[in-house]
Amino acid sequence: MTGKLQKILIADDDREWRMVLYEAFSRKGYGVSVAESGNMALDLFEKNPADFIITDINMPGMGGIELLERLRATRPELPVVLITAHATVETAVSAMKLGAFDYLLKPFPVESMLDIAARAFASGSQPDSLIQALRDSREKNDGTAKNKYIVGGDPKLSRVLQKAKSVASSKATVLILGESGTGKEMIARYIHDESNRKEGPFVALNCAALPEGLLESELFGHEKGAFTGAIYTKKGKFELADGGTLLLDEIGEIPLHLQAKLLRVLQEEEVDRLGGRFPVKVDVHVLATTNRNLEESVRNGEFRQDLYYRLNVIPLTLPPLRERKEDVERLAEYFIERFSRQYAKHVKKMSKSSQRRFAHYDWPGNIREMENLVERAVLLSLSDELEPWDFWDEEADGAGFDLMSGLPDSSTPSVSFSADGMESGEMASLRDVERQMIMQALQKTDDNRTHAAKMLGISVRTLRNKLHEYRSQGLID
């Protein structure tokens, strides 16, 4: 980060949340301090003023609301975000009345808080590194490479991108479907960047991240005096996205009573603010994402059929990563280079064992899972190459380890399998082959578990667990 170091103060009596937020912001290059109470936060702020405050509402002693009041008295321009696991209408109204920059309900994705901080700093005189990095990357991309972060050449993905580009400048509502972690929001941003609205705003709202009492105001806005605590007129996301693109993320989570109002906005292209006297015209290209089966939700009475048909004008279904096997290696290389550069690490290659494991793995968490695993490996790797145990903690991750996914190829010096000890005509199961590979590796290394594990491309702990399993089954002495 260049220029003045931007400082963030986190106040929360929940140690786990303090550490999660501390690590997330520290990785982005911010100066971060933490406090476990409002009083401690105020003391820290007086000694070393921060540029952005995150505070829990319910803390022993001074809570987040009182801390916000005290900070507002001396620094009314300071962005303060309130977080809570127990949202109520009263606290939300108090937060709005006191001018909180934002209000989040726990648990929330850490990325949401990073985006809020980026927005807060971008609205000041010096945009933060997240915004600048996004700007720089877009400026470097030409027309064909605008989807720089959409890595891969899989035919299924290419068809989705082609369809997305062809409808980008239309007003047709696009429903982006796919499993969690497949990159639905990225496709939405790609549509915006390829459209004739690219100079307009791109506004995203996670419909699952807000309590029901605030969602209507966030979507449609409210007039001053519309309810207790509404001391100013607020534009909703539809108005903020006027002339641009609005992404409704997790659209399947919108409650039924708001679905009718949303349908009317989509049909009439005008919004009624809470407490408003007249509708406000809006010109917005609406995109929606979901990982739910909306047809099933319609059958179960959880989602309006007419709204589903209105949203499903242009459906785009993103393929899961397990159906994009040819993209796995290039995605891994992309993330390795990205995180190595981010953490100032030497760019390492994946070992042959890691490459085979990636190729055989089903990726239930899709691209997001790979991104997290690669970040872990880049930070933790101590060897010359990225090994399987750098990506997976076999016991903690629960992903299991199939040694057969690491079967050696002809270019890798390793163990070979022979059918010694098998009766004539008997087929060896995969577990039999696995066990014999392990025993042969131990024999070749004179029972040196470290060398045997390296030869097999697994961790010593995994080898130890396998041997314990064989002994408990009476397969070895």
Folded structure, characterized:
It is globular, with a radius of gyration of 27 Å. It is 45% helix and 12% strand. A 5-stranded parallel β-sheet has the order 2-1-3-4-5, sandwiched between helices. A 5-stranded parallel β-sheet has the order 7-10-13-6-14. It has 4 domains: 7-122, Response regulator (Rossmann fold); 154-319, P-loop containing nucleotide triphosphate hydrolases (Rossmann fold), CATH 3.40.50.300; 320-400, Helicase, Ruva Protein, domain 3; 415-477, Arc Repressor Mutant, subunit A, CATH 1.10.10. The protein has 477 residues and is of the alpha/beta class. The chain has helices at 15-27, 38-47, 64-74, 89-98, 110-122, 129-140, 155-167, 184-193, 212-220, 237-240, 256-268, 294-299, 305-311, 325-342, 352-360, 366-380, 388-391, 394-397, 430-444, 449-456, 460-472, and strands at 7-11, 31-35, 52-56, 80-84, 102-105, 174-177, 202-206, 221-222, 234-235, 245-249, 270-271, 280-281, 285-290, 314-317. α1 (15-27) links the parallel β1 (7-11) and β2 (31-35). The relative contact order is 0.07. α2 packs parallel to α3 (64-74), α3 (64-74) runs parallel beside α4 (89-98) and α20 packs across α21 (460-472). The chain contains 21 helices and 14 strands.
Task: Please describe the topology of this protein.
Blueprint lengths: L6 E5 L3 H13 L3 E5 L2 H10 L4 E5 L7 H11 L5 E5 L4 H10 L3 E4 L4 H13 L6 H12 L14 H13 L6 E4 L6 H10 L8 E5 L5 H9 E2 L11 E2 L1 H4 L4 E5 L6 H13 L1 E2 L8 E2 L3 E6 L3 H6 L5 H7 L2 E4 L7 H18 L9 H9 L5 H15 L7 H4 L2 H4 L32 H15 L4 H8 L3 H13 L5
Parallel strand pairs: 1-2, 1-3, 3-4, 4-5, 6-13, 6-14, 7-10, 10-13
Antiparallel strand pairs: 8-9, 11-12
